[in-house]
């Protein structure tokens, strides 16, 4: 069989351990989709695959056991899903245009979750639209609150929802519900003073626990939605690490701009001599230094006065080294 | 006198009223819910008729308009004190029929035996109450079962209908505004609200119900947040707070704020003693206060069956279901429930 593996991988088909067999990977931005597409996924799995489907770690579907000869046929069946989910595509009917930038993952957000500070799947789709298709290996995930159920901190870009608690002392009875919730479940940013609440904005992570705990609507949500942008988390063999805070109290537009700017940074600095011509963003920043990255990332970005940026970001993480036993 | 009025006439009438005094009504407040992007109906000032939420029950009751959640009673220095200005000189409050029944329960407490509470009176006696008519009520309503579905004598009444509104005016300022709109007079008598939810309310509750096992389940279910008390149109408890200003401890203020019999601290006394420690005990106290103690003192049930405590409870504890359990327990201990 003569097959350009680079081409099929870019087309979101995998080279599997079984010779001649591939797997189709279906991206679902935000992991949220109309149920009707499940029927199409079932059809592909039963007609061309081995009848099974894997839910991927990034909230897509992977249909295994597909004969490589059937890639074109599968792409035809994928078309309604690609269109239904409004995925940007260069050649209709030919499947996915690229696979480098991974599915944008998101928690269920405020579609369902009472804790979520925003519609994380909606924002995920907005980002998908702004960055896909692209060959660069970017991992982006969005989570509704600092509980970080989606594990946004293990991504190149993690977006964590924030709300700025609005306090109306006239509605506060001093029950201490918010103070207790913040102390026991979050960052202990509240204290009762003269039976009213003082909030330490430096400590506050905008999780919204105070709003949820308040029985009188003394604490309510800010009209504006805010986000904490954490960057360059990663898994992998070299130096896995959690993403660190770049900007807190950021706005949606600035985040999208920073992500797009990062593609320009990677284009400028990527080491094409790296294995497979791929070098992961975080390692590029390790090489160039954060200042160089920041120069690219903030190009044309106008942060709101509320936003707080870390001028320098330092990462740690795991450095594999066995202890030496004598 | 009843009038048929249009949407635009109502807007003009409310605009006219709000030019004369504070007008409070249930109003849809954007983003005011605990979770994000959730709008809820709360009490707020309005300037036009279209701001009144007719189609939803308010989460919090009218109570906060005349009994502020946090109210400074007086400011003090070494040997002087003065009261703050009242929240308003005159007000009009739009409220549901159940809430007007609730007002009479607040009156029981704050006007008991002719002993008027100064601060309550200051706002309450300067307020006109206009009932928002309910024909069908809402899912959690059980005012009929509590005997609070009728429309008591009030300053006005408004009903939203497909073709506009019916407005009854019983005070001159409102009547003048209605007449200025050349509204058509009609014959209309408000009808009591109807509920789908029916609750068996015991007439008399024997003391033994207090020791019934029905309260135990609340030990695990209730989170003692106090929302049920704060949304209740009849809960009248407050607690006092004395504040000595940090910058000068010779000056300060005394406040009263709403209290909740469910929240920690309510039964604390000197010596570190608290009387009702378990959640079940607190639920029992609340339920029996609403269904027995108040009645023993003032001759009528405190609960008016508005269902707000059901609607707000994050743990889905239903007070109407609790009333049913009390009625059952009455039978078990040989009462006449």
DSSP, total strands of chain A: 14
> What top-tier CATH class of the largest domain in chain A fits best?
Alpha Beta
By helix and strand content of chain A, what is the structural category?
alpha+beta
Work out the oligomeric state of the chains in this entry.
Answer: heterodimer
Radius of gyration of chain A: 22 Å
**Which sequence of strands runs across the widest sheet of chain B?**
3-2-6-7-8-9-1-10
Overall SS class of chain B? alpha+beta
Element pattern of chain A in H and E: HEEHEEHEHEEEHEEHEEEHHHE
The total tally of domains of chain A equals 3
Number of helices of chain B: 10
How far the N terminus sits from the C terminus of chain A, by CA atoms, comes to 53 Å
Percentage of residues in DSSP E strands of chain A: 15-25%
Shape of chain A: globular
Helix content of chain A: 25-40%
By DSSP (H or I, 4+ residues per run), the number of helices of chain A equals 9
Say which CATH homologous superfamily of the largest domain in chain A is assigned: Sulfite Reductase Hemoprotein, domain 1
Overall residue-averaged pLDDT value of chain B: 96
**Low-confidence segments of chain B, ≥5 residues, pLDDT <50?**
none
């Amino acid at each position: 069989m003569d097959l350009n593996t680079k081409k099929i991988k870019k087309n979101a088909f995998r080279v599997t351990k079984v010779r001649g067999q591939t797997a189709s990977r279906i991206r679902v931005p935000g992991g949220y989709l109309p149920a009707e597409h499940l029927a199409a996924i079932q059809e592909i799995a039963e007609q061309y695959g081995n009848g099974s489907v894997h839910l991927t770690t990034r909230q897509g579907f992977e249909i295994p056991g597909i004969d490589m000869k059937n890639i074109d046929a599968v792409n035809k069946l994928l078309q309604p899903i690609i269109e239904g989910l409004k995925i940007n595509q260069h050649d209709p009917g030919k499947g996915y245009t690229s696979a480098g930038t991974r599915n944008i993952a998101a928690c269920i957000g405020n579609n369902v979750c009472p804790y979520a500070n925003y519609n994380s799947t909606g924002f995920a789709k907005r980002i998908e639209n702004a960055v896909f298709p692209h060959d660069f290996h970017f991992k982006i995930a969005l989570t509704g609150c600092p509980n970080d159920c989606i594990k946004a901190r293990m991504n190149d870009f993690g977006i964590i929802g924030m709300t700025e608690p609005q306090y109306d002392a006239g509605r506060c009875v001093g029950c201490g519900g918010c103070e207790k919730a913040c102390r026991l479940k979050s960052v202990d940013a509240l204290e009762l003073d003269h039976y009213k609440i003082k909030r330490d904005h430096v400590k506050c992570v905008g999780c919204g626990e105070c709003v949820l705990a308040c029985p009188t609507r003394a604490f309510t949500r800010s009209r504006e939605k805010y986000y904490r942008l954490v960057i360059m988390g990663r898994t992998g063999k070299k130096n896995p690490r959690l993403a660190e805070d770049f900007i807190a109290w950021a706005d949606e537009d600035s985040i999208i701009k920073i992500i797009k700017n990062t593609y320009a940074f990677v284009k400028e600095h990527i080491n094409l001599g790296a294995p497979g011509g791929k070098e992961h963003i975080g390692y590029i920043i390790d090489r160039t230094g954060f200042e160089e990255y920041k120069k690219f990332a903030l190009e044309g970005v106008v942060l709101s006065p509320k936003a707080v940026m870390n001028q320098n970001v330092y990462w740690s993480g795991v450095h594999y080294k066995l202890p030496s036993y004598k | 006198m009843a009038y048929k009025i249009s949407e635009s006439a109502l807007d003009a009438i409310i605009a006219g009223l709000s030019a004369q005094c504070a007008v409070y009504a249930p109003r849809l407040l954007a983003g005011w819910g605990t979770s994000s992007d959730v709008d809820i109906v709360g009490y707020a000032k309005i300037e036009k008729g279209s701001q009144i939420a007719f189609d939803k029950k308010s989460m919090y009751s009218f109570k906060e308009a005349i009994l502020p959640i946090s109210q400074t009673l007086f400011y003090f220095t070494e040997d002087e004190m003065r009261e703050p200005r009242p929240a308003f000189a005159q007000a009009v409050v739009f409220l549901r029929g159940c809430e007007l029944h609730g007002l009479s329960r607040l009156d029981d407490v704050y006007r008991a035996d002719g002993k008027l509470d100064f601060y309550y009176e200051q706002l309450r006696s300067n307020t006109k109450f206009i009932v928002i008519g309910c024909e069908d009520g809402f899912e959690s309503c059980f005012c009929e079962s509590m005997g609070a579905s009728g429309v008591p004598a009030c300053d006005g009444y408004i009903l939203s209908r497909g073709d506009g509104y019916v407005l009854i005016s019983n005070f001159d300022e409102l009547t003048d505004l209605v007449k200025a709109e050349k509204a058509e007079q009609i014959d209309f008598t408000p009808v009591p609200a109807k509920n789908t939810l029916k609750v068996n309310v015991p007439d008399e509750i024997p003391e033994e119900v207090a020791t019934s096992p029905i309260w135990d389940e609340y030990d695990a279910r209730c989170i003692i947040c106090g929302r049920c008390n704060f949304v209740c149109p009849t809960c009248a408890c407050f607690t006092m707070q004395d504040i000595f200003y940090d910058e000068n401890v010779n000056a300060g203020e005394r406040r009263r704020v709403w209290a909740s019999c469910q929240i920690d601290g309510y039964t604390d006394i000197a010596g570190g003693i608290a009387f009702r420690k378990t959640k079940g005990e607190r639920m029992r106290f609340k339920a029996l206060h609403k269904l027995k103690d108040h009645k023993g003192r003032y001759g009528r049930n405190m609960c008016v069956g508005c269902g707000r405590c059901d609607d707000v409870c994050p743990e889905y504890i239903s007070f109407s279901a609790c009333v049913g359990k009390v009625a059952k327990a009455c039978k078990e201990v040989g009462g006449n429930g």
